[in-house]
Design brief:
Elements: E1 5-9, H1 14-25, E2 29-36, H2 50-61, E3 64-69, H3 71-87, H4 94-114, E4 118-120, E5 125-130, E6 133-138, E7 160-161, H5 169-178, H6 199-203, E8 212-216, E9 222-226, E10 250-255, E11 260-264, E12 270-281, E13 292-295, E14 303-311, E15 316-326, E16 333-338, E17 341-352
Parallel strand pairs: 1-2, 1-4, 2-3, 4-7, 8-11
Antiparallel strand pairs: 5-6, 8-9, 10-11, 12-15, 12-17, 13-14, 13-16, 14-15, 16-17
């Protein structure tokens, strides 16, 4: 009987390399698929090139390797969408959208065309098969990445494998080192992949830079000047350039239509709930009622919450928190959990203060 084929999202880094290694050891036929998303120039002949590096790791593993050009879709959906969100006064999380609309979408499309049984990635997510279907659960607490996967299609979950789900990062590095993989000690990238410098430098040529007033929430006074409302984010404290510098102020709201940034004290950013759009559920809608937890930014602590309004048809959701959350930020994701299980998520549209 022919071994089932798995397409692994492959960068040549330690996580994707170890995921491919484990799948091969489990008896799958593995193909590493590297998505070419943001290279400005070809560099395949350069030994330091990510593509060349990934090919070497694939050769070491003895697996097939494929490079797929998705630069056009990535630029349109992720890069342009990222800048457009800032232009609306939001603070987007591009990795959440990229996982669902680019990385897994591409892998699933290629799997359907090639007859692959599964796709896989090196995300730290536990995948549980139950009588009711496939569930996603938190992985290693220090590295859990379920927050970035709430946009995945519920019907696609049976086709997706997460080989690292039961492992810690340290265990993954040890396993890679034992297999002689060059990626075992490679440092992780902590930045958005298409931003090589600072965020302001990336946004400046894409957004209007028009100075405007920094207005104090409590006094209504203009206490500074900003360089363009779209360059600021809710909760920001540094780099405000206040004229009255003794004031401790945070960005409370951003209005790009009026080119207005409102700042205020920290207590003005203690929110009791949120309204969200683009809801995606990995469970039946009725499962959201009752106790659940909400995470409003990556690595923030979950807070007990309850659904107060839910409209799956329009993708809208309102939540109330048991305790206030600081700087609930439009454009960011809210991921919903019950215990360790990921229930789904949505894009935060606005904070609710009462």
């Amino acid at each position: 009987m022919k071994e089932p084929l798995v397409l692994v999202g492959f960068s040549g880094g330690v996580d994707s390399s170890t995921a491919a290694l484990l799948l091969k050891e489990q008896g799958y036929r593995v193909r590493g698929v590297m998505l070419d998303l943001w290279r400005e120039t070809a560099c395949d002949d350069d030994p330091l090139c990510p593509v060349a590096s990934a090919r070497r790791v694939a050769d070491r593993l003895g697996i097939e390797f494929e490079l797929v050009d998705w630069k056009g879709e990535f630029r349109r959906r992720i890069v342009e969408g990222f800048a457009a969100a800032y232009a609306r006064g939001e603070t987007p999380n591009p990795c959440v959208r990229c996982n669902a609309e680019i990385k897994f979408a591409a892998l699933l499309e290629l799997a359907a065309a090639s007859g692959a049984a599964y796709v896989a990635s090196g995300h730290y997510v536990r995948r549980l098969e139950t009588a009711a279907g496939v569930e996603l659960h938190r992985g290693d607490p220090a590295k859990d990445q379920t927050y970035f996967l709430w946009r995945l299609g519920r019907d696609d979950l049976p086709k997706i494998l997460f080989p690292l789900g039961e492992m810690s990062k340290a265990e993954v590095r040890r396993r890679a080192a034992a297999a002689g993989l060059a990626s075992a000690g490679r440092a992780e990238s902590q930045n958005v992949c298409f931003i090589s410098g600072g965020l302001r430098e990336f946004l400046a040529p894409r957004l209007e830079s028009r100075p405007g007033p920094l207005v104090d929430l409590e006094s209504g006074e203009v206490i500074g000047e900003h360089a363009g409302a779209a360059f600021y984010t809710v909760g920001q404290r540094r780099g405000l350039g206040l004229w009255k510098s003794h004031l401790e102020r945070y960005v409370v709201s951003v209005d790009t239509k009026r080119n207005l940034v409102v700042v205020g004290p920290r207590r003005a950013l203690e929110h009791r709930g949120l309204a969200a759009r683009e809801l995606n559920l990995l469970v039946e809608p009725a499962a959201l009622y009752g106790s659940l937890e909400a995470v409003v930014r990556y690595r923030s602590q979950p807070v007990a919450a309850r659904v107060t309004d839910l409209d799956p048809a329009s993708g809208r959701l309102e939540l109330r928190f048991a305790e206030p959350r600081f700087a609930v930020t439009p454009g960011q994701s809210v991921a919903l959990y019950r215990g360790s299980r990921l229930l789904g998520g949505a894009v935060i549209e606005r904070a609710l203060s009462c």
